[in-house]
Structure formats: structure tokens, C-alpha cells
Design goal:
It is a single chain. The protein is of the alpha+beta class. It has one domain: FAD/NAD(P)-binding domain (3-Layer(bba) Sandwich). Helix content is 25%, strand content 19%. The protein has twelve helices and 21 strands. The strands form five sheets. A seven-stranded antiparallel sheet has the order 1-8-14-15-16-13-19. Strands 2, 3, 9, 10, 11, 12 and 21 form a seven-stranded mixed sheet that branches. It has a three-stranded mixed sheet with strand order 6-7-20, with no helix packed on it. α4 (176-191) crosses α12. The chain is globular, with a radius of gyration of 22 Å. Bound molecules: flavin-N7 protonated-adenine dinucleotide.
Length: 540
């Protein structure tokens, strides 16, 4: 986060894209073709030196660095490879027009903003292995990306390095100096993180909503900060000028960006597959990992699924080493099941614990007519209100890309919420349960109110009550940022090695104990860079 008016030197080092050794393509097609070429479904009975479960941030870092070290890697991904155009000629659906591509195995959409001006927004869609999973647990819906590229396919691209003074609370057992000197810069370079051109931002119509957000923050005395993003800013300028197909300026984000955004397909995964040592099985879901009957290593059971979600084959393969990179929820669910069913009896009692929602809570404010937020809104956020030190909240000024003037300011707050939930295996339903309670969002609401009650009082404005249901102010039913469940130095050692089973590793968001103080993917990537370096040096 870079406070306005603070020099680049005072900002966290290495967040620029200048260090990047990656091709930062504005167009996604060539990289996507490369990843598709690497898609080679695994066959039953196969043996692989390293199997990686999941193709999000942690999995992609592991695959790239292992491949560069000369190791053959096979990645298993339950989602699709997203390389085929739909009837509209595009790979990804627009945020305002969800269709069969949008949701993971649902017959009705479950949009984070469920209502608008009194009308419900959700609609029927064909059941399909779509890109966004709205996974329901008892007290919370957890949104996750599905497909080769994981969460990088659907997220807002906000690439935020936590303030160093907050890092001790994020990963207490990790050497902060190493992270800020080596691994955060490496992650930011590898992800292609960059900053919006401030001069362009000041006049761009598509960021009027953000400038209104800044005005209101500053009039109430809150620090307003710019945040880096992985979107190709030159491409966005061309979108605004009308020279290229639009993506962020056409509201694309939640169901994928057809252009402009550097997902993992353009960065880590492109480099990993270019080594020739990484292959990927899309539409394959790992259901079991257990010590092999003989010869060491692990037996991994995998369901191949079709786009309707039905299992078409069950495969059994063996691997010397297995990396769990299925995301906080995916990895936690697998581990808690494997522990409870006796497949991995050595896992310790920390398994499934320490899960948090990164304190996510959403809200909208209704502005006066003189504070129009603009019909054209870029779907890529650029800025936020930093009240972490004083009130425990960092609120990103988020877009509402509806195509009409809404006079609304919309925010996703990341807050200091102390509650942590736990996964447990339910033998009756054969599912993993999570014991989160909706009431546990109250500290997040209180923290967000430290910002928005004050702004509303100052501006003479009110909260919107029409976005999350009827007369409901807070989007307190969801998270975009699941973290924890296999916490570093608890369920694993201090580098992600699972206890009790040599050769099994966790390398994704489940290592982070519930809160990152900012949007999490840069920290997930940096921690993965740190851990894989140690693992390659000592375990291979
Ligand atoms: P993740 O990226 O979720 O990858 C896990 C992969 O494993 C997925 O592709 C799964 O389909 C796959 N998988 C799961 N289970 C299995 C299985 N059993 N077998 C095979 N494959 C499996 O994990 N973060 C930010 O920092 N900035 C943002 O602006 C931001 N915006 C977001 C917006 C939305 C709508 C969402 C949903 C998330 C957002 N995030 C953002 C969060 C970010 O995407 C998330 O923290 C990371 O993607 C997590 O990375 P992991 O490597 O842990």
C-alpha cells in the first residue's frame, strides 16, 4: 500500500514490475495456448516424481521452481483449462451477464451482490464446471476460483504487500527481513505487479468512483492509499482510448478477464509449462493420498470429472512427493478427511484448525447526486482506505460496474477479526464441515464502521440497504479470502512439511493463520517462494 504523497522509496521495496523476467502480455491467448498444450491427463498406474494438487498461486510457484530444478511435475486441477470460446466468441463470461461458464456446478447463480434497487439479481444457469465456486458452509459462503490458474482467474488482481509492521501478526514464525528483502520482491516480480499511472488515474472516467472514494476518505481524515495490481495498465489505457477489445472497462472480473489481467496463465504457469517439465490434468479431482503399500512414496486417487460434474473415471497413481496446493478450503478439506479416515494417520491435531475469512465484509454507501461515481467503472480496484492501525480495517474502494450511474460507493473491507474456525470430518455426510458462525462477523462490521460511520456523518449520507438483500447493510455472509486450516509451524513445520508423513507438503493459503491484513495472494506467493527454495535445497 502506498500512501498518497509518500515517495516510492518509503513504499515497500520490489513491488514494481521492473524486476519481472516474465512476458507481460496484454492478450491472454498465447499463454493460454501454452498452458493448454501442457494439459495431458494423467493415466491410471502412472508414477510421477512430484504431484501438485491445485494450480493456484502456491501450486504454480512449486511447479515452476521444481521444474527449474530439473524435477518432472504433474499438476492435478479439478477445474477446467479455460481455453475454449463460448457462443459469444469469448472464453470468459461478463460479470453482468453470468451464464453456464460463471459458476461451479450450480443451477442458479449466487452473486456476491444478490440484490439491486429492490430486485434480486440471481438467475438460473445450466449446471457446469464454471469458474467461480460459491461454496456454502454453515455460517459462510466461500468464493474461490476453479480452473487452471485457481483464484488468479477470478480475482480483482490487487497485489498488496502487507505493511511490514503488521507482518509479525500475519506469519509470526517467519523471518520478516528475508521476506521483505527476498521473497516479496521475487513474488511481485514473478506476478508482474505494477502501479497505475497516477496522472492517467486522475483524469480517467473509469476511476471517477475511486476519486469520489478518495475525496470522502480524505474529508474524514482517513489515509487513502494506492494499491498495486497485476492488470496491464498500458492495456487499460488502450481500452479507454478505444483501441483494443475491452475487458476491465467492460466489467470483466468475477467470471474471468478475456484480456489485460495477468493471471497465473500469463506468469508463473506460462514459465512452468515452458520448461517442458510440467504437465497438467484439468477436470481431475484428488480424493485421497495415502502411503504407498510398498516402495515408499504415496498413492493418490483421482476422480476425472466431466463438465456436468459427473465422475467419468477413477485413477490411482503414485508419487514420490505430493504438494497440497488446493487452496485453504480444498487443502483443509482433504487433510481433515485423510486424517479422520486413517489414510494419513500421522497428521497432527492442528490439522483443519486456524481458519479465518481475512475479516472480509462488504458495504455500500448512497452518495448525493453531486457525487456521481460514473457509468463507466474499471473492474480493477486501485485504492483503499487504510484505517488498520486506528480501527482494524483496510477498505478497498471497489467498483460497481453496472453500466448505469448508481450514485453508490462500494467497499470490500479487510478487518482484524480474531475469530478462527475449524474443519472437521462428518462421517455421516462424508463431507468436511466448517464451524464458522455468521455472528463472528460482528468484529469486522465494527471495524468497518470506524471508517464508514464517520464518512456518512461527515457527508450526510447513509448506507445502501439494497445490495445484499432487503434492508441489509452488511455483506457479512461471505469471504473472498479464505486462509488457514493447515497453519505454518503448527499443522506443518516452519516450511510447510506435514508432520508424520515425509514427502507431503502444504504450499498454499492454508498455511496463513486466518488473516493477512491485506489482500492475500502476494503473501501466499511469497511464502511459497520461500518454502520451495528450502525444500528444493534440502529434500530433493
Ligand atoms: P487457489 O488459488 O484457490 O488454488 C487452488 C486450486 O486448487 C483451485 O484451482 C482449485 O480448483 C484446485 N483444487 C481444489 N481442490 C482440489 C482437489 N481436490 N483436486 C484438484 N484440484 C483442487 O489457492 N486476492 C488478492 O490478493 N487480491 C485480490 O484482488 C483478490 N480478489 C479476489 C476476488 C475474488 C472474487 C476471489 C474469489 C478471490 C480474490 N482474492 C484476491 C483471493 C485470492 O484469489 C486467493 O487468496 C488465492 O487464489 C489463493 O491461492 P491458493 O494458492 O491458496
Amino acid at each position: 500500500m502506498r500512501p498518497t504523497g509518500v515517495s516510492r522509496r518509503g513504499f515497500i521495496a520490489g513491488t514494481g514490475s521492473i524486476l519481472g523476467g516474465v512476458a507481460l502480455a496484454g492478450h491472454a491467448a498465447p499463454a493460454r495456448a501454452k498452458a493448454a498444450a501442457a494439459a495431458a491427463p494423467i493415466t491410471t498406474g502412472a508414477h510421477v516424481p512430484v504431484l501438485v494438487i491445485g494450480t493456484g498461486y502456491g501450486g504454480s510457484v512449486a511447479a515452476l521452481r521444481l521444474a527449474q530444478a530439473g524435477v518432472d511435475v504433474h499438476m492435478i486441477e479439478m477445474g477446467m483449462s479455460w481455453d475454449t470460446s463460448g457462443p459469444d466468441g469469448k472464453i470468459f463470461a461478463n460479470t453482468t451477464r453470468p451464464d453456464y461458464r460463471s459458476f461451479w456446478l450450480r443451477t442458479k447463480t449466487k452473486q456476491p451482490l444478490s440484490n439491486f434497487l429492490g430486485f434480486p439479481l440471481d438467475k438460473d444457469v445450466p449446471r457446469h464446471t464454471g469458474i467461480l465456486d460459491a461454496e456454502d458452509f454453515s455460517g459462510i459462503t466461500v468464493y474461490q476460483g476453479r480452473g487452471v490458474g485457481g483464484g488468479s482467474l477470478v480475482n480483482g488482481g490487487m497485489a498488496v504487500t502487507p505493511r511490514r509492521e503488521n507482518f509479525g501478526a500475519v506469519l509470526p514464525t517467519v523471518n520478516a527481513a528475508e521476506m521483505y528483502d527476498v521473497y516479496y520482491p521475487r513474488a511481485n516480480a514473478g506476478l508482474g505487479v505494477g502501479h497505475v499511472d497516477p496522472a492517467w488515474w486522475e483524469s480517467a472516467a473509469c476511476y471517477q468512483y475511486a476519486r469520489v472514494g478518495r475525496k470522502h476518505a480524505q474529508r474524514s481524515g482517513f489515509p487513502f492509499v494506492f494499491v498495486p495490481n497485476v492488470y496491464d495498465w498500458e492495456y487499460m489505457k488502450q481500452e479507454a482510448a478505444g483501441g483494443v477489445p475491452k475487458s476491465a472497462l467492460e466489467g470483466e472480473a468475477l467470471y474471468g478477464n478475456n484480456h489485460g489481467k495477468k493471471s497465473l496463465l500469463q506468469t508463473y504457469l506460462a514459465r512452468a509449462t515452458a520448461t517442458g517439465k510440467v504437465t497438467i490434468s484439468p477436470l481431475h479431482k484428488v480424493t485421497s493420498v495415502a502411503p504407498a503399500a510398498s516402495g515408499g512414496g504415496y498413492t493418490v486417487v483421482i476422480d476425472q470429472v466431466n463438465t456436468g460434474g459427473a465422475t467419468t473415471a477413477t485413477k490411482s497413481v503414485s508419487a514420490d512427493k505430493v504438494f497440497f496446493a488446493a487452496g485453504s478450503v480444498g487443502t483443509s478439506k482433504l487433510l481433515i478427511k485423510l486424517k479422520a479416515t486413517g489414510a494419513l494417520p500421522g497428521l497432527n491435531d492442528e490439522t483443519g484448525k486456524g481458519w479465518g475469512d481475512n475479516g472480509n465484509v462488504m458495504c455500500g454507501r448512497a452518495n448525493h447526486m453531486w457525487d456521481a461515481t460514473g457509468r463507466l467503472q474499471s473492474s480493477m480496484p486501485t485504492a483503499g482506505i487504510d484505517n488498520w492501525a486506528a480501527g482494524g480495517a483496510f477498505a478497498e474502494v471497489a467498483p460497481l460496474p453496472t453500466g448505469i450511474e448508481t450514485y453508490a460507493s462500494f467497499y470490500l473491507s479487510i478487518t482484524k477479526n480474531p475469530h478462527r474456525a475449524e474443519f472437521s470430518w462428518n462421517a455421516a455426510t462424508q463431507r468436511a464441515d466448517l464451524n464458522w458462525q455468521t455472528a463472528w462477523k460482528q468484529p469486522s462490521i465494527d471495524a468497518a464502521r470506524t471508517i464508514f460511520d464517520k464518512i456518512n456523518a461527515k457527508e450526510g449520507t447513509i448506507y445502501r440497504t439494497d445490495l445484499f438483500g432487503s434492508y441489509k447493510i452488511w455483506g457479512d455472509h461471505l469471504t473472498y479470502h479464505p486462509l488457514g486450516g493447515a497453519v505454518l509451524n503448527k499443522a506443518t513445520d516452519n516450511y510447510g512439511r506435514l508432520h508424520g508423513h515425509p514427502g507431503l507438503y502444504v504450499i498454499d493459503g492454508s498455511l496463513i493463520p486466518g488473516n493477512a491484513s491485506v489482500n492475500p495472494f502476494v503473501t501466499i506467493t511469497a511464502l511459497a517462494e520461500r518454502n520451495i527454495e528450502r525444500i528444493i535445497a534440502t529434500d530433493l
